Amino acid sequence: MTAFQQRVRQLQTALQSAETFAAKHPRALTASVVGALSCFAVTAFGIAPLAPDAAELPRRTVVETLATPDIEAQLEALATHAIGLTRAEATRSSDTPDSLLRRAGAFDAAAAAFLRTDPLARRLLQGRAGKMVHVTADASGRVQQIVARFPAEKSEQASSHFTRLTIARDGERFSARTETAPLQAQIALGSGSIRTSLFAATDDANIPDAIASQMADMFSGDIDFHRELRKGDRFSLVYETLTADGEPVQWDGGAGRLLAAEFTNNGRTYSAVYFKDSASGKASFYGFDGQSKRRAFLASPMEFSRVTSGFAMRFHPIHKTWRQHNGVDYGAPTGTAVRTVGDGVVEMAGWQNGFGNVVHVRHAGDRTTVYAHLSKIDVKKGQRIEQGQRIGAVGSTGWATGPHLHFEFRVGGRHVDPRVIARASEAVTLPNYAKAQFQQVVASVKTQLSVAQTVDGISAAD
Question: What is the DSSP string of 424-458?
Fold first, then answer.
């Protein structure tokens, strides 16, 4: 009797037992079970005989000889293969061609001489330090290739392109060429908490200063970063980083745009997202509720600085008398960029007694802002300027004991506290036709921000 026939007999016995049980217990459920078993048994009996017994299937053994690669030939090919080692470095202000190559593990007098004499190759160590350099050398230290990346030299391309300088060896000779290529953007996530200052916290989280400044701008209408930061305040953000040939850009401007952020200040959380209206092309920061974070006036004429004297009575450091201080003084190094806090027209740009170099900007609603003690003026009388545009640089001209910016806000000729005006100024509104697109952007960044809260400065491919 075959194995298959034994199995069929077992199923028939089980079926008879089930029928006997069903006769004693005539319930609907029992009948259903028996019916299922009956169907299974009949089906098995009807189909199984068509298949041959596995033991009766024919068997065949296949033997195939595989060719073994020639080991000697592989070793010879490996011996003739030139090994190139590549090392990444950043140029330093004190670098010479020899010191840069030595730091990269290359010892090549001919390459160093080429870097000193060739007009294109000399650009590697000219200008500002911090250029990204990849040096490829063979096992003996002879340079095979040098690739350097640095900001595009044309000002209109500086924020979107980079220059690639390639120096290649061909026998005993070298050649150099340059080309301009677009920077690529990637998405980065970061979070941190305030212990001492905003920039100390963003440094700890490996977040670029440019992104920290944008975050201060984003929430400037909600938080006074000069006076209201608290230890334990937290932030999370989503921003762009720029790469050149896949390498993160280290030079100034290497950070892209802040895309979204959340900031918890003194127990209250503020959220905002960067949104560009596809129809008008205008962009701004908006709260998740669709209310614009951009107001008619910024809270500060500088991206970030410290208030050294507020809008109040004070003892004048030069006249040695108590006087009303009709503005706000911001301490900052000479040369720090000063920006206009709102759209307007330059009413005056020049020297004015104790103010030294000063700029007056007239805004809508009979409002005027004043920027004094500048070391440099970058605008002219009658020029129309936009909010955030650079108008000069911090200095100590006129009656000043040190480098700082004296900033005033006047309404109808009357002095008012600039920090109060910024918060009370009207907000820019989101057009109705853009609200659906805006909600899609908000939904996307909310997910990213929830991830950012658990990490410190990680990156994710765009």
Answer: HSPBPPPPGGGHHHHHHHHHHHHHHHHHHTT-SS-
